[in-house]
Write a structure and sequence with these properties.
Layout lengths: L2 E9 L3 H9 L3 E15 L3 H4 L3 E9 L6 E7 L8 E9 L3 H10 L2 E16 L2 E8 L3 E7 L3 H10 L12 H12 L5 E2 L6
Parallel strand pairs: 6-9
Antiparallel strand pairs: 1-5, 1-8, 2-3, 2-6, 3-4, 4-5, 6-7, 7-8
Length: about 190
């Protein structure tokens, strides 16, 4: 069993954090456009249980081959840091995997794109994310709370207002707030 441990906050701009990362000797390891397909049973049982099932296609901005993954996320545990079980496998053909999951009774509840820039700093990953309509975020994922706190301090982010909701939760809130049936959020889609 693998546990995901991270903290995330909404920010105005990635530029100051990017400068701090470069100044601290961090390494940019990837820039990509992700397409995330969130699946659930018809009755929404996974979401009600606080769990998630995602098929992701990742298209690197450097032109290298796209990758895919299938991820299960368990319910979030209490605390300042987001901590939850995460099981993930690579998928060679995300489109066919979506068809398999639909044949098994799962359906797409939400599709969203995300621009992600991933940096490695010490034992942590620092991710600079941007999503349609939601804006920009910074996420720090690491092996321990202490490792994450150390990176936050080095990036002068100790006062970061944390966002407790997942991107799926934030988009679901936006759907409810707008009273819409919209289920796709892409960068080229009208608002």
């Amino acid at each position: 069993m693998s546990i995901e441990l991270e903290i995330k906050g909404r920010i105005e701009s990635h530029d100051p954090i990017r400068r701090m990362l470069k100044g601290a000797g961090a390494t940019c390891v990837a820039r990509a456009l992700e397409s995330n397909h969130i699946l659930d049973s018809r009755d929404g049982a996974l979401r009600r249980a606080g769990c998630g099932l995602r098929i992701r296609s990742t298209a690197p901005m450097d032109g290298s081959a796209s990758k895919g993954s299938l991820t299960y996320k368990g319910p979030r545990q209490e605390g300042r840091f987001k901590r939850r079980e995460e099981l993930e496998v690579e998928v060679a053909d995300p489109l066919t995997m979506r068809s398999i999951m639909q044949a098994l009774g799962y359906r797409e509840h939400l599709v969203f794109e995300k621009r992600r820039e991933t940096w490695q700093m010490d034992a942590c990953k620092v991710e600079l994310d941007e999503l349609p309509l939601l804006g920009k975020f910074v996420e720090v994922e690491g092996p321990t709370e202490q490792a994450i706190e150390a990176v936050l301090a080095r990036l002068e982010l100790t006062g970061l207002t944390t966002e407790p909701h997942s991107y799926v939760g934030l988009l679901a809130g936006l759907i409810q707030e707008q009273g819409t049936n919209r289920r796709e959020f892409r960068f080229d889609s009208p608002t």
